[in-house]
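>> received
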Amino acid sequence: MPISEQECWVTMNDGVRLDASVCTPEGAPPEGGWPGVLLIHGHGDTGSKASTLGRARRYAGRGYLSACYSVRGQGGSEGLSFHMGAREVFDLQAMIDWALRELPVHPKRLGVAGSSQGGWHAYMAAAHHPDVATVVPENIFTDYAEFAVSDGCLAMWFFLRTMRRRVMTAGIQELMRQWAVAGDWDLIQEWVRPTSPLLFADRVRCPVFILHGWHDVGMPPNQALEMFQRLKVPKKLYLGGGGHEGLDSPEAQAVRQGLIDRWLDHHLKGEANGIMDEPPILYARRPGWEHVAEDAFPPADAERRWFYLGAGGKLTDRAPEGPDTHANVNNVPLRPEYTLRSAIYDDMAGVPESLAREVTPFEGEPLATPAEIVGAPTFRFFVLPNRPFFQVHAELFDVGPDGEATLISRGHYGTRTAAPGRHATVEIEGRTNGYRVEAGHRLRLAVSNYDTRYAFPCFEPFLARLYHDNAHPSAVGLPMRRV
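>> returned
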């Protein structure tokens, strides 16, 4: 379908102008106006409406009036960014009102969609504007307190990506860094918590389609699943490829796009395409990316199996029967002058040369039959720290007969209030997943003191004994079912 495209400025109530583009199908609109889609882009120093314009043109070609705009302080828009704060919510409401008032859009058929920052806007539209017909949030965290300080660790993505220095900010970036260095992590969490989508789940009244990638580096899928479970509206959830620097496949991309098209066609055009008659959850099972439909996740037939850490780096389904020599999680600074402040201001570039990373592996026997992991692993470690502060990072791998290791799931734990010399139980929820492990493959658990891909390390020396005996049976619990 031929389309027309127009650029325009939309003025907010504080005088700031936002840069917008409108893509309209050629010809006369249907009775009541075109079904419409408002698209919001992801956050970042290069984030702007340009990243959603191709999508807007595509939707216009499919019979939607589609509009996209650059969030304040980003792209060509004026103003300063408040990093997904109240000001952005006010702007979003104004943009929805503008679309319904100034554009030939059907008053009951406007949807809001976007990924990352745009996904947050989609949630906020559903929670705060009564005239939105449906939303499609993609690849976005739903609890911002946990996004900033994840399981007791400063989150890499929050400080190095969300708080980018090159975004036109209202000063929040530097405030976050100052609180991080000063140890005021609770202030960071309290500052960002109020605009968490999870807090507004009960306010959502329109249908919601959530999409999230298994291995989204910055935003694990666990909270997308929690948000889905809390919503009390018509809903659908896709878990699989994509996300921030996540794994993907062309087949998964095509499936996602097809699902979004059908969802919008049903809720904005009124097409009876059967999407609401299908199971509400669809996930891509790696490594083959087969798509599986379920009514719940984890499925009802999944059972948690425990694999225990043992002497000699073994991982076995038999609990320890007696005393055993412990392992260690050890943190050794190589350059004591390199501190958390250094890492925050150089984007952790100096960490590998300044802090030794020690990894202790535990590996199982080849599986006799294939199995599928469906849900979030639980890493349960018994430790004895010598300092109030320590971190433990866990990674679960699928190891093929050729020795190639593929990451299945991971998680971490950090604290600054441990009791030195006292036993403690560390329980880590791993990233939820759908993963098939073939017969003849092994499971490998890697335990380490830090992983800069996900979190800032602890820069003080510590030693935490990692026990795996009959009195302190450290283990990993996997929700599994036979394939």
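>> The chain has two domains: 3-294, 303-482.
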